[in-house]
Design brief:
CATH superfamily of the domain at 38-128: Winged helix-like DNA-binding domain superfamily/Winged helix DNA-binding domain
Low-confidence stretches: none
Helix content: 55-70%
Organism: Actinomadura litoris
CATH architecture of the domain at 38-128: Orthogonal Bundle
Pfam family, one: MarR_2
Radius of gyration: 22 Å
Biased composition (Pro residues): 1-18
Number of strands: 3
Number of helices: 8
CATH class of the domain at 38-128: Mainly Alpha
Distance between the termini: 62 Å
Strand order of the largest sheet: 1-3-2
Region (Disordered): 1-21
GO biological process, one term: response to stress
Length: 154
């Protein structure tokens, strides 16, 4: 049996520039955040509920919202949000009351038990992935400066 020659090695790539560099940086961030640093399953396991429910609690921890506002921030439709809130009410994590400014709508308010679950989820989500923790301080400082600039531009 004859051996086939090894595949040709690719030509060295020149570093990308402009839009190609931005696309590569975005791809790397997506891998880091959504594949390696994705904590949604860990949050669901720790809280005993879907990530969307804990996301709702984290939003409500900042203050009460109408059912419509909650649906908007969660990017869900109102019927699904209503079911989600029903479940959170049954768990004792939120309360639903009539909106005195518009009696047709409901206000959703987090309970103390809901705040505890939201805080637990936030602690998990706030834990940086190991790849980030292992960076040298000067790289972390540069990354922090760049990330702060990017989020400030929203």
């Amino acid at each position: 049996m004859t051996e086939s020659p090894p595949p040709e090695s690719p030509l060295p790539e020149s570093p990308p520039t402009g839009p190609d560099l931005a696309a590569r940086a975005w791809q790397n961030l997506r891998i880091l955040l959504h594949e390696r640093g994705d904590r949604r399953r860990e949050v669901a396991a720790a809280t005993g509920m879907s990530f969307t429910r804990t996301r709702a609690l984290r939003r409500l921890a900042a203050g009460p919202l109408t059912l419509g506002e909650l649906a908007e921030v969660l990017l869900t439709d109102r019927p699904y949000t209503s079911l989600l809130v029903d479940d959170l009410v049954e768990r004792g994590l939120v309360e639903r009351t009539t909106n005195h400014a518009d009696r047709r709508s409901k206000i959703v308010t987090i309970t103390e038990a809901g705040r505890e679950v939201a805080a637990r989820a936030q602690r998990i989500l706030g834990t940086p992935p190991p790849e980030l923790r292992e960076l040298p301080p000067e790289d972390l400082a540069a990354l922090d400066r760049i990330a702060a600039r990017l989020v400030a531009e929203q």
